[in-house]
Design goal:
Length: 493
Amino acid sequence: MAVDTLVAGIVMVYLLGMLGIGIWATQKTKSTADFLIAGKRFGIWAVAFSAFASIMSGFGFIGGPGLFYQGGYAFLWIAIVAPLAFPVSWFVLGKKMRLMAEVREILTIPDAVYARYDSQAARGLTAVSVLLGVISYLAVQLKAMGFVLSEILGTSQFVALAIAVGVITVYTVGGGMIAGVTTDLVQGVVMVIGSIIVFGLALDYGGGLSQMSRDIAVNDPQMAGAFGSFPVMLTLCWYFLFTVGNSGQPHMAHKLYMIRDVKLLKWGAPIAGLSYFASSLMMLGIGISVRASVETGAIEALQSADNAAPYFLTNFTPSLLAGVVFAAALGAIMSTSDAFINIGAANLARDIPESLGIHFDTDRQELWAHRIASATIIAGSLFLAYYAEILVGLLGVVGWALFASALVPLLGIGLNWDGATKEGAVASAFTALVLNIGLAIAGEFYGFSLPNSVVIGAFTLVVASIVMIVVSFATSSVSREQIASDVHSVITS
């Protein structure tokens, strides 16, 4: 697209603001607890906005309109219904995760797994699963950042990526989660406001949802239906995976440690859920309005579905608003990226070493190890994004599924059922890891797919949960005696 000076200026001001927050947060980060869980200093608004912003990601702001454009109303089963995932996550994990951080020194998701099951094997398998998902997701996010920023600034993707990575490195490596949550709060507010305004413009442009639906139905009635042009089972699997599986997303669950006052947890779900709903409106408005325009012949068909959002913003919105929304899109990518960087660094510098019996002598050593690990994660993801695209594509297929099937059974079930055993946890985590990667390899290289359009992630989540329950019942004679009294009090709370 042609470079708009006002749009580029707004985005650059936004990036400078993020850089300023990073420098400020670096000065505030004095310990490993500050770096990983922000010293448990944030209020519910900051944590809830951070949780929703990191889940939204570039997939929502850029990919979402494209999926509405491509498949019609099928994507409603994620974009609009997915806010239900936040109440589910808060109910299943919210209080439990925060209380675990009170009774034990817990800074990461695998820390909670170890405290619950007293098993380094379960901790190590969890850390490896999360790390694989983090690196693949981060590689995709960084590549998306370079693409979006290069389109805005009119530079090469290399220059754009260097600018974006420079900013995110400063505030992530230096400021950790203090910077991450603060920037997420700003980014989340921008997403919500920008989405609501663009949704209104899209409705006005297309003549309202009813008119746009009629325009689409003239040539393709199925696309205007409840399941769009995608198979019914596929959309139902999406619904299941994104609603139940959200509880297993580490970039969401990790934020639950950071709330200052446990009593305020109950407000987090409606804040995060409604914010996600509001920011999803833009996906619906742009995707359906552009599709309706194509069906009526008002515009030519797009070369790529992912061009739906950039096309609408550059052609049908004022430059000031387009700049704000492009900043929001960039912010969505950056909010997910900084969460993944911090989580991956924790896996690399803390969880995997401790599962192998390696410990740091001082907190200062561990803090610097996390900063070095953050830089390593960024460098490794950049390398994978541009020099190992097959691996990124393979892991990207299982990213969300690997998170969900590894963590929902171990924490979603384990923190609510004292009958879950360490043997069940290890068997479930191993099953999730092997099954997800195995099915992804079979699909990528041998064309394998599950029958009736069943999504691999939904299948592996169900299987891993069944393994957890069955193996736990088989080894239940010693389960409750293995649980420490302080951890048991959290489970029964």
